[in-house]
Amino acid sequence: MKKITGGVTAAKGFEAAAAAAGIKYENRTDMALVYSVKPCKVAGTFTTNVVKAAPVKWDRQIVESKIKSQAVIINSGIANACTGEEGMRCCLETAKAAAEALKIPADGVLIGSTGVIGMQMPIEKLKKGIQILAKEKQSGAVAANAAAKAIMTTDTMEKEVAVTVEIGGKTVTIGGMAKGSGMIHPNMCTMLAFLTTDAVISRKALKAALCADVEETYNMISVDGDTSTNDTVLLLANGMAENPKIKEGTKEFEIFAEALHEVNETLAKKMAGDGEGATALFEVTVRGADTKEQAKTLAKSVVCSNLTKAAIAGHDANWGRILCAMGYSGAEFDPEKVDLYFKSSAGELKIIENGVALDYSEEKATEILSMPEVTAIADLGQGEETATAWGCDLTHGYIDINADYRS
């Protein structure tokens, strides 16, 4: 596997563009296009929130109907959530406008929106933006990066990645871009992720690879415990790599799934580390568990703990908060067997052994916790299973951003 540049345009046949449509923001781009020169098979996963935005409903019916797609239209600034029939009409008009501008079928145009909930979309601005996107679309890393920037809301940086692998003597590429900074919580979040591949792959295998990996990546991140109305991950495959068709249960499927995991984990960690107001990516690994589910439950409980997140922000090795979060997770374990470590680029330090604090250096612990990426490792000493969750520290910056988000 090899990491390359290019994001959503790295795979053969994919193009992208960005436009400043003035939907909510001024003096910046706020619309993006991902386009394939050939129709794509599509797999997708969506928010578990009962309140679902119009684009989520729109995309789900496309994915479930097995219609092929050639384009995704994305806007930032307004979420098109809690907008009733008008919101769905906006999706229809958006799809029709994109179909006309790009000369493709309207029934396969996918849509992504992120931003303020409850505001109606300015459809005329969207249509003008689509005209710009259609004219500006192109291949290459510059176009991919522009699209990744256009979908940002409170994100502080664009999030993109691409990898290549060899399958059947052909180079297969998977690329992607994502946005997400706040209202982020396991079971999908205010995150949009758009993945592209030129792999020849069965629809069943495409769906299986994505759905399984979402559980290990995007559903293992949390910023603030809030599950959004707009969460969407879309994976488009246009088959232009000309490899032998990838089918589920084969070695080729395993290679593809591993590459997809690299893309998804990279984007997930970028989102977690770019949490609103965050100064550090906070990673929690639970090992020595009896079952994978036990490890996942414990890791997510720690990464979601506001007290622990605040301690990370203060570079305070308050290990009691971690054990406390593990204790109320609902997972059974023996606290008197737990070993706990803190780790970062500044080193690794064992904090507790068999549930009891060691005589460790507070100064060294503070140094380790002062790095931009911090890991807590909890060893249960029970079994062989491991799971990792990702989040961020909790700072005053989170309140500053969300106290006046609508303005």
TrEMBL record:
<keyword id="KW-0808">Transferase</keyword>
<feature type="binding site">
    <location>
        <position position="402"/>
    </location>
    <ligand>
        <name>substrate</name>
    </ligand>
</feature>
<dbReference type="GO" id="GO:0006526">
    <property type="term" value="P:L-arginine biosynthetic process"/>
</dbReference>
<comment type="pathway">
    <text>Amino-acid biosynthesis; L-arginine biosynthesis; N(2)-acetyl-L-ornithine from L-glutamate: step 1/4.</text>
</comment>
<dbReference type="GO" id="GO:0004358">
    <property type="term" value="F:L-glutamate N-acetyltransferase activity, acting on acetyl-L-ornithine as donor"/>
</dbReference>
<dbReference type="GO" id="GO:0006592">
    <property type="term" value="P:ornithine biosynthetic process"/>
</dbReference>
<dbReference type="GO" id="GO:0004042">
    <property type="term" value="F:L-glutamate N-acetyltransferase activity"/>
</dbReference>
<dbReference type="InterPro" id="IPR016117">
    <property type="entry name" value="ArgJ-like_dom_sf"/>
</dbReference>
<comment type="subunit">
    <text>Heterotetramer of two alpha and two beta chains.</text>
</comment>
<comment type="pathway">
    <text>Amino-acid biosynthesis; L-arginine biosynthesis; L-ornithine and N-acetyl-L-glutamate from L-glutamate and N(2)-acetyl-L-ornithine (cyclic): step 1/1.</text>
</comment>
<keyword id="KW-0068">Autocatalytic cleavage</keyword>
<keyword id="KW-0055">Arginine biosynthesis</keyword>
<feature type="binding site">
    <location>
        <position position="276"/>
    </location>
    <ligand>
        <name>substrate</name>
    </ligand>
</feature>
<comment type="function">
    <text>Catalyzes two activities which are involved in the cyclic version of arginine biosynthesis: the synthesis of N-acetylglutamate from glutamate and acetyl-CoA as the acetyl donor, and of ornithine by transacetylation between N(2)-acetylornithine and glutamate.</text>
</comment>
<feature type="binding site">
    <location>
        <position position="407"/>
    </location>
    <ligand>
        <name>substrate</name>
    </ligand>
</feature>
<feature type="binding site">
    <location>
        <position position="153"/>
    </location>
    <ligand>
        <name>substrate</name>
    </ligand>
</feature>
<dbReference type="GO" id="GO:0005737">
    <property type="term" value="C:cytoplasm"/>
</dbReference>
<keyword id="KW-0963">Cytoplasm</keyword>
<feature type="active site" description="Nucleophile">
    <location>
        <position position="190"/>
    </location>
</feature>
<keyword id="KW-0012">Acyltransferase</keyword>
<dbReference type="InterPro" id="IPR042195">
    <property type="entry name" value="ArgJ_beta_C"/>
</dbReference>
<feature type="binding site">
    <location>
        <position position="190"/>
    </location>
    <ligand>
        <name>substrate</name>
    </ligand>
</feature>
<feature type="binding site">
    <location>
        <position position="179"/>
    </location>
    <ligand>
        <name>substrate</name>
    </ligand>
</feature>
<feature type="site" description="Involved in the stabilization of negative charge on the oxyanion by the formation of the oxyanion hole">
    <location>
        <position position="115"/>
    </location>
</feature>
<protein>
    <recommendedName>
        <fullName>Arginine biosynthesis bifunctional protein ArgJ</fullName>
        <ecNumber>2.3.1.35</ecNumber>
        <ecNumber>2.3.1.1</ecNumber>
    </recommendedName>
</protein>
<keyword id="KW-0511">Multifunctional enzyme</keyword>
<comment type="similarity">
    <text>Belongs to the ArgJ family.</text>
</comment>
<feature type="site" description="Involved in the stabilization of negative charge on the oxyanion by the formation of the oxyanion hole">
    <location>
        <position position="114"/>
    </location>
</feature>
<dbReference type="Pfam" id="PF01960">
    <property type="entry name" value="ArgJ"/>
</dbReference>
<keyword id="KW-0028">Amino-acid biosynthesis</keyword>
<dbReference type="InterPro" id="IPR002813">
    <property type="entry name" value="Arg_biosynth_ArgJ"/>
</dbReference>
